[in-house]
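Supplementary Methods, section 5.1.

A reviewer requested that the exact input to the structure prediction be made available. We therefore reproduce it here, unchanged from the version used in the analyses.
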Amino acid sequence: MLGMTVAGREVTAELSVLQLMELRSVLGFFMFLPPVFLAGGFKAMKTQRMGAHISRNIAHYVGQALWLYALTLIPLAHLISIEFTTPIWTAPLAVVFLGERLNARKLGALVLGLIGVMIIVRPGATELDPGHLVVLASALAFAASLVLVKSLTRTETVVCIIFWMLAIQSIIGLIPALATWEWPRAALWPWILTAAFCGSFGHYCLARALVHADATVVVPMDFMRLPLTALIGYLFYNESIDLMTALGAGLILCGNLVNLQRRPAHAPA
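The structure derived from this sequence is encoded token-by-token as follows.
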């Protein structure tokens, strides 16, 4: 997903977010055909849960569009720090819709994450940046999407989930993309292809992980993206990291690490 971050920053400097979303989905669909054919072809992609697929992909499309838009508004370190509240919002949603258990450990992670966001955004202390609210809304949409993916993994194959992700988002994104369409110049195509590949196969890996573990455990695993993204922002985009952002990000990461802690087998939930 780090590749998606860099590619998204490069492409959205010239093209609209909605156009990149459509190119990512359409190109990703064709890139993903080999796994589809290996899994049995289009016949094997039949589903009895189209409503869940559509709901999941509406949530994900909205989250991805907001995330890419926020990428044009705020520094990378702020973006990824606040995005890392996704596991925190996933926890209560997974309790309500998946029957997962919310214990003291997960509540502690929730509190630490909320404090971290407040430190980064600093409402009242500084002028509120709309980009912070946009990426926070994106994190909430991603959380809803992840819970629906976890639910789908109970009955659907991972290949089926990603196939319908790319197909449905290609359809729902077509008209918005055409409304803002500009033909990309040649130098942008490597970045567009990178976004399509990372967006498709990154979600494939995530869905595979959700087959084997709770949503509240899987999502925090990519926390290494935070320091790496901040480093890229510093080296390539001249983005400094202030003390308050580092402190807030640290608390969010601590919350995620608390969430990852396994309780002893004899301990109560």
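DSSP finds 14 helices and no strands in the chain. These observations are discussed further in the main text.
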